[in-house]
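@channel sequence for tomorrow's demo:
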Amino acid sequence: MSEEKTKPILQLTGKDGNAFYILGVAQIVALENDMDWETIRDEATSSDYNHLLRTMMKYFNVK
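structure tokens (generated this afternoon):
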């Protein structure tokens, strides 16, 4: 099974690009999919906005 298929969808297209909004939506999706939200959050918030987006793409299939 490919890695892309195992990632839950994180729908961000057409939504607010605010970092807090992205984290909020990602938290909901992560918890619904039994993902380790604390690890994802810590990684996503360890640097700048671009790092946040890269982290979201690492763990989610961002649409």
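heads up for whoever presents: Residues 30 and 37 are 6 Å apart (CA to CA).
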